[in-house]
Write a structure and sequence with these properties.
heterodimer; A: about 140 residues; mainly alpha; about 0% strand; B: about 160 residues; about 70% helix; DUF4439 domain-containing protein (chain A); Ferritin-like (chain A)
């Protein structure tokens, strides 16, 4: 169970990292959206850190840097990466549902849902249709 | 004498009991009471009902087709995936829940009403996910997340 939460924590940390280069390529409402998404991931991370302390699990520290899949050189790349980051977070949390129960299951479901909803928003901003996928978090 | 009579009574009673048990045996060939429906059956039925609701909305406002058809298709995909795991297998959906060949535009919902329906449906699926056994949690979780995304897409 705690391994599922550790995996979720790692996904949240990676998302926090990615939103920095994403945010600088966006302006106005889109930049605000990125800021809000980053804040949501930070809040989730903090909740998870507390929960893992409660479970006496010490996750490995977040790496100092992540390799982004491609350089975020413009708005289009930023919107694309933001959607992909959220899809990745959703996939991690979907996988965690099987290995969690009770309040931790609820945490995983909320994290999956929030990430999937943000991915929907990023697709709308990027002009991608359809806005939704049939099974958020399911790979392939 | 009294004792013999008593024994005879006992034997008679035993024979009667045997008969009675045999009588019960006559019903062995009857079908066992049906097993309780799968707890995810309401989720499957709601997915089909929602799909039909979208069909009616598109029938009333064809301009919404591009926006709503993928969501209707997602609900049908959810129903199909749930059908694969329901135990016992789901009965055929009721006529009102089944997709009709020519959806009736009468009583078609507005986009705002669809959105409200998705929000409620999300809550139902989220509750089902929290209660689901491990091997069903991911599928039901995806259904719950998808419904939240539909509500977002209808903003």
């Amino acid at each position: 169970m705690s391994q599922a939460l550790v995996a979720g924590l790692a996904a949240e940390q990676a998302a926090i990292y990615a939103y920095a280069p994403i945010g600088v390529r966006l302006t106005g409402a889109e930049r605000a959206e990125a800021r809000a998404a980053e804040a949501a991931h930070r809040a989730r991370r903090d909740t998870l850190v507390l929960r893992l302390e409660q479970l006496r699990v010490t996750p490995s520290a977040a790496p100092p840097a992540y390799v982004l899949p491609y350089p975020v050189t413009d708005r289009a790349a930023a919107l694309k990466l933001a959607g992909e980051i959220e899809d990745g977070v959703a996939a991690t949390w979907r996988a965690a549902l099987r290995d969690t129960e009770g309040g931790d299951r609820g945490t995983a479901l909320a994290a999956l849902t929030d990430a999937a909803v943000r991915a929907t928003r990023w697709r709308r901003l990027a002009g991608v249709t359809p806005l939704t996928v049939p099974f958020p978090g399911r790979l392939g | 004498m009294d004792e013999r009579v008593t024994r005879r009574w006992v034997l008679a009673a035993g024979a009667g009991a045997g008969l009675a048990l045999g009588g019960c045996g006559l019903f062995d060939d009857d079908p066992a009471p049906p097993p309780p429906p799968d707890p995810l059956l309401p989720l499957r039925d709601a997915a089909l009902a929602l799909a039909g609701t979208y069909d009616r909305a598109v029938a009333a406002q064809p301009a919404l087709q591009a926006r709503l058809a993928p969501i209707a298709a997602a609900h049908r995909a959810h129903a199909a995936e749930l059908d694969r795991i329901l135990d016992p297998p789901a009965p055929a959906p009721s006529a009102s829940a089944a997709a009709s060949a020519a959806p009736d535009a009468v009583g078609a919902p507005t986009v705002a009403e669809l959105r409200a329906a998705e929000r409620q449906a999300h809550k139902d699926a989220a509750a089902a996910c929290r209660a689901a056994p491990a091997d069903r949690a991911a599928l039901v979780g995806s259904v719950a997340a998808a419904r939240a995304c539909h509500a977002e897409a209808l903003r």
